[in-house]
Amino acid sequence: MQIARIDDHFERYDELLQVILSAFAYMEGVVDPPSSAARLTPQVLQDKSGSEIAYVALEGDRIVGCVFLRPEPPETLYVGKLAVLPDAQGKGVGGRLLMLAEQIARAEGLCALRLEVRVELTRNRSYFAGYGFVKTAENRHPGFDRTTSIEMRKALS
Predict the structure, then answer these.
(1) Of 1, 6, 57, 77, which residue is least crowded by CB atoms under 10 Å?
(2) Planar angle of CA 64, 154, 54, nearest 5 degrees
């Protein structure tokens, strides 16, 4: 497996969108409100990759995963849209992308990684806990009177 930065020469946004939609499909009808992945378009992904640090995981020429990273105060790297195709899950793709996020955060002098997981996705919370993330907050999407997502952080030494 190879991990490559999405740069100005990247043109495979249609394929990238399909990877994210496939990876997030199991959430349909499970999370409320629906995942923001449903609102993505190739153009949104292109814009997002221009303003964030984005990578794809490749098996040969096939995109099997991705991650979008965004520095934010105070000294944190936000991990978003971490996605792995269903048939590539369990092969270490997500772990490699998380390790890359750690390397980037350290290189940028940042002291923590942060992400959000929907409250309904208990397996995802366990997965991230296995990589050292701990629950730091409960959040609500606008218009909701209940917790809809869990914030998790990993302190970097």
Answers:
(1) 1
(2) 35
Provide the residue count of the chain.
157
Is residue 33 helix, strand or coil?
A: coil
The string of DSSP codes covering 45-56 is HHHHHHHSEEEE
Question: Which residue is listed with tokens 């814009």?
Answer: 47
Backbone angles phi, psi at 2, to 5 degrees: -120, 145
**This prediction's pTM:** 0.95
How far apart CA 61 and CA 13 sit, in angstroms, is 14
* Contact between residue 115 and residue 80 where contact means Cβ atoms under 8 Å apart: yes
For the record, the structure tokens of 137 come out as 């907050």
Contacts 24+ apart (CB under 8 A), 20-29: 20/45, 20/66, 20/81, 20/83, 22/83, 22/85, 22/86, 23/65, 23/83, 23/84, 23/85, 23/86, 24/83, 25/86, 26/86, 27/118, 27/121
pLDDT tens sequence across 94-150: 999 999 999 999 999 999 999 999 999 999 999 999 999 999 999 999 999 999 999
